């Protein structure tokens, strides 16, 4: 009996060691697939789109015509759409040095950006027209959300480049923002491409690797960012837009709705989150009983995106129509369900954990 | 990490300057540049309500963040480990931040003065439990501590009025695992929630007496340490660890529990009491209760004291209670929401583990996300400063 117990102890130790050896890189393939299959291409696309913004603004500010305005509207939309594909990657190079906040200051429930722009304009502070000085200013003044406020009217018309006493000053500021955004976007892409940079930390977890000690922690960093991305779409973007009832709906609370890109941004976020999840390719890691989960997730993403695509007018103009309001309301329900399927079912099936307070409270 | 002092190393001037370097970096990129450059240390510059909370940073390090009522960071103080609760002085000019159990550090911070934070280490054989409070005159701090070899809860009494913090005595809490504590309105007694769970720093997060635990809420006389009252729940609820508390405008103490028994059960989790009145349990409707995993995180009253909020981070819900009737007024969904602080006359600020800071005007409204610093996880408790 005694021998048996010792043998069992040795056996269980052996199993434990094998188990940890396996666990050490169990998720590294998923991590690599997300980095190579999603994060690097998406951050490169954003950098490429952002690099077109300075010349587009220069053309508009040289001569504001129907054509240069249309080019700016399209260019801005493409940047915002590409941004929607990376804004949920809230870890590593995307968030270093306040990059994400500098690219777009969101949420801004208290209208901080508007207030700071007004104050800066009142002083005619020249430093905001210099990209190198702008990058030392408040993050709210630096990015796409500030550009939207100065380039578009409340009604969604392009006003940048229009005649007026502050025209050149505002154009200078817009140009500085565009260069700042292009610079940050390029830095993010470069840093994600860097084989020895943050990617290496995600791909080579270990005891000396900061908070990423295991491949489980590496994939959790990514996985939890996707879940947070969904929570942001719902809690931070849709709920304030919808208010508690249609009479209290506030279309301006939807990100990028002033430029008419609210819907495009939402779609880009959802498509990006889904694409990152697909890139992880969790399917082979799931036991038979959980094999239904990915299909269910992609079905719900498709529903949510189709629902948004069916909104046929800018949300700023159409929100108080029952139809648009109802579609966004439906999207809230879809996202709740998606979050549950991903954060509870899929995470559970993969043995991943999330929730800082829930996980280990006190 | 800017500040790498170990638990028992006094805070060095160099480390503090490094900390200020962190603050200065913050000034360059944050919103309130002028407020920080001049205002952080000068109270007259700050005309907005401030909040303070420990958090985990994107790089995995721990810090305290002081923010304005729009959720924007004004100042950041690196911590050597995970923080938990805080004592805020009555005039709100000072704070003491405690390590999460079984941590042994506490930091006394004077955010309005150019003064080094003072590091306090628990005495040998003790660790902090994560909460503390100031005396009414602001001269003393009471800190809950574990006398782990003797298996008894203790309140360490610290004189913080001088140049150096002095431990001048201690009180027994009459129980095991004291967690949250409150000063009564008259400033003469302390209310302490004895969570009832025996732990030992040798096995940091292990619970050693779940079968026999007997949590209580006690009232202690600050003059002599006498036990003025001790409240326990019915025997069948002895595994409901009573942990976090708030006092409403009627002087009732609200306590939230964490159930250590069978998680398929849905026991009551929130009770209210006074010194002379036994605990009265509140009712959580079945469909809500079943999703909470029988776990309450923070308990906080709004500024007017007529509504008490209790967060349930494992259920992703915050519940709101009428102080007058004990009724559940409503619930809100906040994924991993735990920290709560009163803001304005009747509203709440809610922090969550995904970096969100939300403003809730009233229980029937919805939490408006004010800010979400990227990569940050707000820790269990937040305080108005």
TrEMBL record, chain A:
<dbReference type="InterPro" id="IPR018976">
    <property type="entry name" value="Imelysin-like"/>
</dbReference>
<protein>
    <submittedName>
        <fullName>Imelysin family protein</fullName>
    </submittedName>
</protein>
<dbReference type="InterPro" id="IPR034984">
    <property type="entry name" value="Imelysin-like_IPPA"/>
</dbReference>
<feature type="signal peptide">
    <location>
        <begin position="1"/>
        <end position="23"/>
    </location>
</feature>
<dbReference type="InterPro" id="IPR038352">
    <property type="entry name" value="Imelysin_sf"/>
</dbReference>
<dbReference type="Pfam" id="PF09375">
    <property type="entry name" value="Peptidase_M75"/>
</dbReference>
<keyword id="KW-0732">Signal</keyword>
<feature type="domain" description="Imelysin-like">
    <location>
        <begin position="45"/>
        <end position="332"/>
    </location>
</feature>
TrEMBL record, chain B:
<dbReference type="Pfam" id="PF07433">
    <property type="entry name" value="DUF1513"/>
</dbReference>
<dbReference type="InterPro" id="IPR011044">
    <property type="entry name" value="Quino_amine_DH_bsu"/>
</dbReference>
<keyword id="KW-0732">Signal</keyword>
<dbReference type="InterPro" id="IPR015943">
    <property type="entry name" value="WD40/YVTN_repeat-like_dom_sf"/>
</dbReference>
<protein>
    <submittedName>
        <fullName>DUF1513 domain-containing protein</fullName>
    </submittedName>
</protein>
<dbReference type="InterPro" id="IPR008311">
    <property type="entry name" value="UCP028101"/>
</dbReference>
<feature type="signal peptide">
    <location>
        <begin position="1"/>
        <end position="37"/>
    </location>
</feature>
<dbReference type="InterPro" id="IPR006311">
    <property type="entry name" value="TAT_signal"/>
</dbReference>
